[in-house]
Write a structure and sequence with these properties.
The chain is α/β, with parallel strands linked by helices and about 230 residues long. Helices cover about 35% and strands about 20% of the residues. It is built from eight helices and eight strands. An eight-stranded parallel beta sheet has the order 1-8-7-6-5-4-3-2. Helix 6 links the parallel strand 7 and strand 8. Helix 2 packs parallel to helix 3. The N and C termini lie close together (about 10 Å). The mean pLDDT is about 95. Bound molecules: D-xylitol-5-phosphate and zinc ion. Zinc ion (ZN) binds next to strand 2. The site of D-xylitol-5-phosphate has 22 residues, from strand 2, strand 8 and helix 7.
């Protein structure tokens, strides 16, 4: 049986001038904090670095920090994010020539290793890596910005990954990122997503905590039926 669906608000859509109060506005209704790291090369945007992750870790020692690296050659930077205090560290398969080595490095440091694929990348690419990951992040928009529209066909990747996971006896989590919100959370949970990343759908609402409570009810109902 699946575990309960986890909710991971993305700080990309938080109030950058008031990060601490944005996080507190979640009132603990979330499971993880998702941190989008962008380098202006792999994606056409620049966001947070290890210093930000370290500051988060210092201010919120008990939070699960889910760090999504949308950067070229992530192997050069994983040590810095490990030191900063990331719990989950996810690298893009498209950005690294030696993803297995990078994933191993993350795990050697007792952090959870994730691999991600863009909408245009087949899940077949990461099939050989599945025994070496704690999470697969399926991008359901082209990474770079919040507030984009969910690409529904990406759920086919989730189905394939869940099937392979069962066949191989593995236990990695499947995370979906981009365009997720109240309108499709039940479908995503029922379709096999274990972690829902949500930026604008949470921080773009007047009361993020009550939005999360609503989405929690929606996914719990879906979990019961799954
Ligand atoms: C997109 C990022 C996402 C983003 C999602 O490149 O990886 O995590 O914050 O934002 P929404 O939920 O608004 O699509
Ligand atoms: Zn992300």
């Amino acid at each position: 049986m699946r575990g309960k669906t986890l909710l991971a608000p993305s700080l990309l859509s938080a109030d950058l001038m008031n990060m601490q109060s944005s996080i507190l506005s979640l009132e603990g209704e979330h499971d993880w904090l998702h941190v989008d790291v962008m380098d202006g090369g792999f994606v056409p945007n620049i966001t947070f670095g290890p210093g930000f992750v370290g500051a988060l870790r210092g201010a919120f020692p008990d939070e699960v920090l889910d760090v999504h690296l949308m950067i070229e050659q992530p192997s050069r930077m994983v040590d810095a994010f490990i030191t900063a205090g990331a719990d989950y560290l996810t690298v893009h398969a498209e950005a690294d020539h030696h993803v297995h080595r990078t994933l191993s490095r993350i795990r050697e440091n007792e952090r959870k290793a994730g691999v991600s694929i863009n909408p245009g990348t087949s899940e077949e690419i990461i099939r050989p890596l599945l025994p070496f990951v704690d999470m697969v992040l399926v991008m359901s928009v082209n990474p770079g910005f919040g507030g984009q529209t969910f690409i529904g066909t990406m759920m086919e990747k989730v189905t394939a990954l869940a099937r392979w996971r069962a066949a191989l006896g593995l236990s990695f989590l499947i995370e979906i990122d981009g365009g997720v919100g109240r309108q499709n959370a039940a479908m995503a949970a029922r379709g096999g997503c274990d972690v829902l990343v949500m930026g604008s759908a949470v921080f773009g609402t007047p009361d993020p905590a009550s939005t999360l409570r609503e989405i929690r009810n929606i996914v719990e109902e879906a979990d019961e039926r799954a």
